[in-house]
Design a protein that fits this description.
alpha/beta; Rossmann fold; 2 domains; eight-stranded mixed sheet; 17 helices; globular
């Protein structure tokens, strides 16, 4: 089968979660003997719009270079840039594909979906975050609060405007004042104009999602949220991420003889990940003389000042160790030093792989009771959950692991089976077969 994968970035030059998911699909298909090509964005600041094509590890990759701000309306270009559609069209005029799989859709927008459909190519769309309903991708407001969803275009307009420093700073410092301000300002010409922009964005992306033949959702929470806010999810399916499993026999190292509970954090060192909440809780427990340690792995790239502040805060606590970034080859060794992993995120998350990876190592997880996390971490079965931003509730969860000797083993026994890459991409391929009638 000939498959085209469309993604806003592709390894090795782009290597975040969605990009790794696209690479996982491509590698599986190539290994099964299928022909795979990738259409992706390489640079957003090149004044000369062009595609560079190369074969990398058996995959033909078409990398688009263009200037996002160079022509047209910048805000509209973020979700509906004709240059992306034209670039894909030039590709499809010279090559044939049985199916196109769009991963995320960020930046690519409706252009890739509608262009593929114009060439009678079935489209599978995997939603890896909330970009089709939220221009910020993660349903966090400009000041970092969890958003309940796009109840109105006026609400989204305020969020767009507060991305600008002149509105964000007063929103951070005087939220009540800004509530009053926007109740009046939303009726001004500049706000009405931006509200219309948000309405156009919403309508464009709703139409694009509805045009896809299959919409893959890696969490029930995400699927239900899109449905709640008016997106056509009649063709949606639920497929949990599949991961590479650890080597046979790989297990966490034994707990230290002194009984110290080893807590682990693996992820970005950023405010929306709740790292400060975790640190405050652990420092409080250490001050109380509790036998615990905390090791943090991850980068603060993009939030360097926050990362520096967090490290400074913990200087007096040798039981809190900062390890920095790690490679994929180190993953199982990193996780193997923990008794439990804590995921204190302040945003909804969408099937966070750190939870699945921890489960693969038979490590229970303590996670925020928010978004898709409670779907994965079944409270009292495979881990514990705590209320959003509630340090006292997180404190109680950690204390339970100290005070209830059999709890850790009971939670470990309740960890579910985690899908393999064969399970995940095999489910995608079954959809390709249904859409094309090919095997």
């Amino acid at each position: 089968m000939r498959v085209l994968i469309a993604i806003h970035g592709f390894p090795p030059t782009h290597y975040a979660g969605s990009e790794r998911a696209a690479e996982r699909i491509a590698r599986w298909l190539v290994d099964k003997g299928h022909h795979v090509e990738v259409f992706t964005i390489e640079k957003l600041d090149d004044p000369n719009t062009h595609i560079e094509t190369a074969v990398e590890n058996g995959i033909t990759i078409h990398r688009l270079f263009y200037d996002l701000k160079g022509q047209g309306d910048y805000f509209e270009n973020l979700y509906d840039d004709p240059r992306i559609g034209n670039a894909l069209r030039s590709l499809l005029e010279t090559r044939t594909f049985d199916v196109m799989h769009v991963v995320s859709g960020y930046l690519l927008g409706g252009q890739v979906i509608h262009t593929a459909k114009a060439f009678n190519i079935p489209v599978v769309l995997t939603l890896t975050e909330f970009w089709f309903m939220c221009f910020r991708l993660n349903l966090l407001t400009a000041v970092g609060d969890v958003c309940t969803g796009p109840e109105s275009d006026e609400k989204c307009m305020r969020c767009v405007m507060e991305d600008q420093r002149r509105f964000r700073l007063p929103a951070e410092r005087a939220p009540s004042f800004m509530d009053a301000f926007w109740s009046v300002a939303q009726h001004t010409p500049f706000a009405k104009s931006r509200t219309k922009d948000l309405q156009r964005r919403r309508e464009t992306l709703m139409k694009a999602l509805a045009a896809a033949d299959v919409v893959v959702c890696p969490s029930q929470f995400l699927m239900n949220l899109f449905r709640t806010f008016g997106f056509n999810m009649s063709k949606s399916i639920y497929v949990l991420y599949g991961l590479k499993h650890p080597p046979t026999g790989k297990q966490p190292s034994p707990r230290p003889p002194d009984g110290t509970l080893r807590l682990g954090y693996v992820g970005q060192i950023k405010p929306h990940k709740g790292v400060d909440l975790l640190l405050d809780t652990v420092m409080r427990l250490l001050d109380e003389g509790k036998a615990i340690s905390l090791t943090l792995w991850g980068s603060s790239s993009g939030a360097e000042s926050y990362g520096k502040e967090m490290r400074q805060r913990t200087l007096a606590y040798p039981a809190i160790q900062w390890k920095g970034s790690y490679s994929s080859d180190q993953l199982w060794d990193v996780l193997g030093e923990f008794d439990t992993v804590v995921v204190p995120s302040r945003w909804y998350e969408n099937n966070p792989t750190v939870i699945l990876e921890s489960f693969l190592m038979r490590i229970p997880v303590i996670a925020t009771k928010l978004g898709s996390m409670p779907e994965l971490v079944k409270s009292e079965k495979s881990g514990l959950v705590f209320e959003l931003n509630d340090a006292n509730d997180l404190n109680r969860s950690i204390n339970r692991l100290l005070d209830e000797p059999d709890l850790l083993e009971r939670l470990r026994a309740g960890i579910p089976k985690i899908p393999t890459i064969d399970d995940e991409v095999g489910a995608f391929y079954a959809q390709y077969q249904k859409l094309t009638g090919k095997s």
